[in-house]
């Protein structure tokens, strides 16, 4: 009985430690090193991803997408991004890292990063569903005016909790949707991802910063698990 009691106390202490970690903000970038990230399906970081003035910068295309070392399920992510003129990038979540997928976008839904004025993607898709902070190719932002143009910083927040996702841009809630179920399945079926069997199927995974070939900056990246 005594040994069972000790085991129960140990298990309880582990549970308290795990719960204490949840809800605590954790930095994913210290402004100096990119050691909490690696290139998708590779180890380490390509030198085209640099640190400049406290920001992670993709200096040239061909580096590959950055993904977190850790997987996340429910979370709140905050960061700032700045896109070059005519540029395109993205922030993906619940990315499955596996050699059978060539890039994060095969599995992870995307919060769009875009120069709305100059990049052609802004006028493609349906009803603005490829504008900055959209759920890419599925849901447009409810207030596109919340966006700041190329070479200005945009502060965004992505919340994934209890099967629902919410996108915020510069303090405004602009997109909301379920991450599974019939409504989600219908959205996917009407998008470019309709025949991608693993797209949006996982409830946990990496967070990705996309190399779309254009210069892009990310800073003040932090996350808390919910």
TrEMBL record:
Keywords: Signal
Annotated signal sequence range: 1-20
Lineage of producing organism: Bacteria, Pseudomonadati, Bacteroidota, Cytophagia, Cytophagales
InterPro entries (UniProt xref): AL/BT2_dom (IPR010496)
Name recorded for this polypeptide: DUF1080 domain-containing protein
Record domain 3-keto-alpha-glucoside-1,2-lyase/3-keto-2-hydroxy-glucal hydratase: where: 24-224
């Amino acid at each position: 009985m005594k040994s069972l009691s000790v085991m129960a106390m140990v298990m309880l202490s582990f549970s308290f430690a795990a719960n204490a970690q949840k809800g605590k903000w954790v930095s994913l970038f210290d402004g100096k090193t990119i050691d909490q990230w690696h290139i998708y399906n590779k180890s380490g970081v390509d030198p085209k991803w640099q640190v400049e003035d406290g920001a992670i910068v993709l200096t040239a295309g061909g580096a590959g997408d950055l993904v977190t070392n850790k997987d996340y399920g429910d979370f709140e992510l905050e960061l700032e991004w700045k896109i070059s003129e005519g540029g395109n990038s993205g922030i993906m979540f619940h990315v499955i890292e596996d050699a059978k997928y060539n890039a994060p976008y095969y599995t992870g839904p995307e919060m769009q990063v875009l120069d709305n004025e100059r990049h052609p993607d802004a006028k493609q898709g349906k009803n603005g569903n490829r504008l900055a902070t959209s759920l890419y190719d599925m849901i447009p932002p409810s207030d596109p005016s919340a966006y700041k143009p190329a070479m200005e910083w945009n502060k965004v927040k992505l919340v994934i909790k209890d099967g629902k996702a919410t996108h915020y841009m510069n303090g405004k809630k602009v997109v909301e949707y379920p991450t599974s179920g019939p409504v989600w399945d219908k959205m996917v079926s009407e998008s470019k991802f309709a025949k991608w069997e693993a797209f949006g199927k996982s409830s946990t995974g990496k967070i990705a910063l996309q190399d779309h070939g254009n210069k892009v900056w990310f800073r003040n990246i932090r996350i808390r698990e919910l």
